[in-house]
Write a structure and sequence with these properties.
Elements lengths: L8 E2 L3 E5 L5 H7 L16 H13 L6 E10 L4 E11 L2 E8 L8 H15 L5 E6 L4 H9 L3 E7 L2 E6 L18
Parallel strand pairs: 5-6
Antiparallel strand pairs: 1-2, 2-3, 3-4, 4-5, 6-8, 7-8
Helix pairs in contact: 1-2, 3-4
């Protein structure tokens, strides 16, 4: 990853591509189900609002000490977008999140994408800590976090439990580089 933006990475079935405003057209349909907002609040955004959000995300954080890295998830087998993952990186800490459209839930894409994201973030030298915030009743998201190697903590923020990947220090074992990772 660079200061200019995220680098693409791949998992067994998915390509995580840097999010661009042009992805809004396809992603509006992926994210159209109101059920996706059951634990986070809000409602699906219309195409213009989603495109404007993606323009902001693509431009990056106005804070030079913070990086907004966002990826769309494309299934290689059919080239369809199915969701996104993101990391807000400030110093050695990455705050992560993921969304997979309702149509593609239950297929393991969220677990695969989140595990791939964590491995991708920790493969570099900058990120040492990965966290996510999960609603206590969102058991599916908790299972995704666990599959990515995060564990629940006793910390809470805005009604959500903080999950954390144990810190990676220079002397600790780092995850192996994924041979499918693309530069």
């Amino acid at each position: 990853m660079t200061n200019q933006g995220p680098e693409a990475f791949s998992t067994e079935r998915l390509d995580a591509l840097p999010l661009r405003a042009v992805h809004a057209d396809e992603m509006a349909a992926v994210l159209a189900d109101p059920a996706l907002h059951a634990y986070t609040g809000g409602a699906p955004e219309d195409l213009d609002t989603l495109r404007a959000r993606y323009v902001r995300w693509e431009a990056g954080s106005p804070d030079p000490a913070e990086h907004w890295w966002n990826w769309v998830l494309r299934v290689r087998a059919d080239s369809r977008l199915v969701g996104w993952v993101q990391a807000t990186v400030a110093g050695p800490r990455a705050e992560t999140a993921w969304v997979v459209g309702t149509e593609w839930q239950g297929l393991g894409y969220a677990k695969e994408a989140a595990a791939g994201l964590v491995a991708h973030l920790l493969a570099g030298e900058a990120v040492r800590t990965v966290v996510a915030h999960i609603h206590p009743d969102h058991t599916a998201s908790a299972a995704v976090a666990a599959a990515a190697g995060l564990v629940p903590t006793d910390e809470w923020e805005d009604g959500e439990r903080r999950w954390r990947r144990p810190d990676v220090t220079s002397g600790a074992a780092r995850p192996p580089a994924d041979p499918r990772r693309r530069a």
